[in-house]
Structure formats: C-alpha cells, structure tokens
Amino acid sequence: MKAIVCTRYGATEDVVELRQMPKPTVGPQDVLIAAHAASVNPIDYKIQRGDLKVIMRLSFPFVMGFDVSGIVVETGAQVTHFKPGDAVFARVDTNRFGTFAEFVATDAQFVAHKPAQLSHAEAAALPLAALTAWQALYEKAHLKQGQKVLIHAGSGGVGSLAIQLAKHVEAQVATTTSTANVDLVKSLGADVVIDYKTQKFEDVLQDYDAVFETLGGANQEKSFRVLKPGGVLVSIVGIPTAAWARQHGLPFFMPWLFDFMNRNNNRLARKHQVRFDALMMTPNGKQLEQIAILAEEGKLKPVIDRVFPLEQTQQALLHSQSGRSRGKIVIQIAPASGDANT
C-alpha cells in the first residue's frame, strides 16, 4: 500500500516520504479501514522532529498520522460493533498510529461511525481535535452552563471546535484570533473576540472560570491573570503533569522531571489561587460517537483550511507548521465521492 513514512528524526523536507509499505495485519479486536481521508495535527510533525522521543519509543521507518475516515473492509473475530462496508472515523491508538496510508488497522475501541452528512474529508478533520477540545473542556475544566471560558486560537483546528463545544453547554466564550479571522470565530459562536493584533487579552478579560491554552509560552503565563480564584487553566502544550507520568507508568524519575519542568506553571497557579492541568488527549471511540451525534445535529462543524492529496503530505505538514492555516488541513487518500458514506 502507499503510505507516508518518517525515515528518521529531522526536518519535514528531509525525513518525510511516500513509500510502498506492507498492508497492516488485523488482530481479533481490530478493524481494517480503507482510508479515504486523514488530517494533519501538530503531533505529527512534533513526533517527526523528535520532540516527543522522551515519552514515545519508535522504530523507523514508521507510517505517520492519527486521524482517519474511511470504510471498514475487515473486522477481527471479537469485533461486534462494526462490519465491512461501515463508514467510520477514528483517532487511532497513540502507540499504534499510521493513518497517512491507504489502509489503517486499529482497535475497534477507538473507532466510531462517521456522521452521515459529512464527507470523509470533513470527518477526518474531527477526531483528534474534537476529542482534545471535549476532554479539555468537559473532563478537565468541567465547563458548565453560564461559566466563562477563554479559548485561545479560536480559528485553529482545536480552537474552532472548542468554541462550538463550549457553546453546546451554554458557556460564555471569549477567544483570541487575528483580524482576518474575527468573523469566522463569531460565526462559530464566540461571544467575546480579542484581536491579538490590536488588543491584549490579559488587559481586557477578568474573572474567567477556565482558560483553554493552546499556544503556550508567554501567552500561557499571561492567561493565569484572567482567571478568578478557583478557576482552572488547561494546557495542551508543553510538558505533561507528574500525575500523568505516574498514571501511565513512566520511569520513577519522570514524575519528578515533569514537576520540575512545570514549576513555573505550578508557581503561577499558586500565586493566582487557581488550578493548572495539562491534557494529553486519550483516544476514545465512545466520546467520538457523541461527537458524531453533535455533527449529525449540525452543532459541530469542522473548519477546513486546505485539502492535499496523499502525494503532497510533505507540503501539508509544512503548511501546518507555517502557522498560517485556519481550521484543519486534510489529506485526501481515496478520490472524493459525492456520497459521503462511500
């Protein structure tokens, strides 16, 4: 099968290439998906550059990619929820990824039925980003009706979905974006829009219940200021927490290391009397089914920046790294069809 592989750690131009790779084998709990579309996420190029090698052990060459939408062509003996011919989408297992390919095998627990009215390209744009927003807002921040949440980078792949999920629970949403994307984030439901080119969010906003931090660095430090006492900042950038390291059985020194590397976040949380948490998203087919329902009801719509063919995945990754995209970047693997479920 054709697949996009990473041959070693390094720059996208040097280590990402199209190759013929063996078709994946199907275990008893697996589904084999004929991939129609995949999407690019920051984790793709972070892994490729070696940014995550301290917590991910990989053998080269490996097939890249975490999001997929396609058609089930084979199921393992223990799979009962899916059958050949089903249109599905998934964020595959972190330890067994590889969706930039013509065929993808993954455990059925990570798979959900694709929203019927979405194309495969649209469905492929959802899994990782929507699950990230879902878990950050609903599981970490416990966002509720009437609460105020600041979502950074509202025009991005994660931010654009987070706005919609926050509005689904009737929260009040503020977001940061550039001048060019103000109308977009308003159309997604943002109540307060901060144009970071002309405004400083930390001077405008105050007494927020939650911040969903997607940028990191100095932006994250400033975000603590807008929270009210007892609020929470949930970050998806930087280092996991010590609790996460212990939960996932990392070597004994890793919780200490992560705590040390998060010392500034922990200090700021104490200073402002708030809670800091870092999210490492966990793939979850049941949550993805709930996300599919929202998409079916028209309450959750992916924003797609560009669609690249599989052969141009290197360019897709470079476009993602440029920071100039709005919404998701999609890779079309099989020819697009007029029927969203074929």
**What is the CATH H-level superfamily of the largest domain?**
Medium-chain alcohol dehydrogenases, catalytic domain
Tertiary shape: globular
The total count of helices amounts to 13
The average pLDDT score comes to: 94
Task: Please give the CATH architecture of the largest domain.
Answer: Alpha-Beta Complex
**Quaternary organization:** single chain
Distance between the termini: 20 Å
Which sheet architecture does the biggest sheet show?
Answer: 7 strands, mixed
What's the structural domain tally? 2
CATH domain fold name of the largest domain: Quinone Oxidoreductase, Chain A, domain 1
Radius of gyration: 20 Å
Outline of the structure:
The chain has 342 residues and is α/β, with parallel strands linked by helices. It has 13 helices and 16 strands.
Architecture overview:
This protein is an alpha/beta fold and 342 residues long. It has two domains: 174 residues, Quinone Oxidoreductase, Chain A, domain 1 (Alpha-Beta Complex), CATH 3.90.180; 151 residues, 3-Layer(aba) Sandwich (Rossmann fold), CATH 3.40.50.720. It has 13 helices and 16 strands. Strands 3, 5, 6, 7, 8, 15 and 16 form a seven-stranded mixed sheet that branches. Strands 11-10-9-12-13-14 form a six-stranded parallel sheet, with helices on both faces. A three-stranded antiparallel sheet has the order 2-1-4. Strand 15, helix 13 and strand 16 form a beta-alpha-beta unit. The longest helix is centred in the middle third of the chain and has 14 residues. The radius of gyration is 20 Å and the shape is globular. The mean pLDDT is 94.
